[in-house]
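Weekly modeling sync, notes
Attendees: S.R. (lead), two postdocs, one rotation student

Agenda item 3: backlog of single-chain predictions. S.R. asked that every request posted to the team notebook include the full sequence so nobody has to chase files. The rotation student volunteered to paste the first one in as an example of the format we agreed on. Action items at the bottom.

Example entry:
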Amino acid sequence: MDTIMNWINENSGLIIHYAVQAVLALIIFFIGGRIAKFCEGMTEKAFDKKKVDKAVGSFVASIVYAIVFAATILMALSQLGIETTSFIAILGAAGLAVGLALQGSLSNFASGVLIILLRPFKSGDYVEAGGKAGTVKKIEIFSTELRTPDNKVIIMPNSSIMGSPITNFSRESTRRIDLVIGVGYDADLKEAKAVLKSVLDKETRLLKDPAYTVAVSELADSSVNFVVRPWVNSSDYWPTYFDLMENIKIALDDANITIPFPQMDVHLHKED
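Predicted structure, as returned to the notebook:
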């Protein structure tokens, strides 16, 4: 007992030093854990405000918590005088190995986060991206689900979506219908233009502002082409498109104005 007491007396300064260091390490560990929880909660709230799927928000928040908590452990160990350089090197090597092994998945995950944050489209929008087109049904961490007009389901990796131009047909409330109508060279252009305008004037779904355009755009090989460009609400685009195509054909037939098909004149020369 006397030996132990003597050792304590001789090393009292060192014991107090390590005791203080241990207490400080525990304080760092405790406060760091609270900060990690706080960061996790703030991340989830930020995703909730953007109305992001809860599974995605929870997943990202857990990653934030893990990073902050790992940094807290390293700080606590450093406070105890433990060399943390080797730990950092091991974690770095492990992270690099995992990153290389999951390169494609990480790329899809990063692209999914960008889709969620930048919001180039939302569920229900009709988009064209990565060479595919369809209505967005689900936006998940690694992939996005599209449904085509003929009811096919396309599961697209998020990286292929963010790595290509995205066309969102639903974001704006109005769209322009672009039609090209050809008439024969023997047709009266003023009459043809009047017929096209009469069809548009009878269509109640067309918007008054912006006004529609009917104009000669091209003297083609077999026809004189008119551009017909009315504006409609985005939800009325396809029904109006189909009805206009039918009504224009009927109106031109009633006015005896032909819509020519491509043709070629072949001249034969007889040799004597």
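Discussion: group reviewed the output briefly. The chain has three domains: 9-82, 125-168, 174-255.
Action items: rotation student to repeat for the remaining queue; S.R. to check formatting next week.
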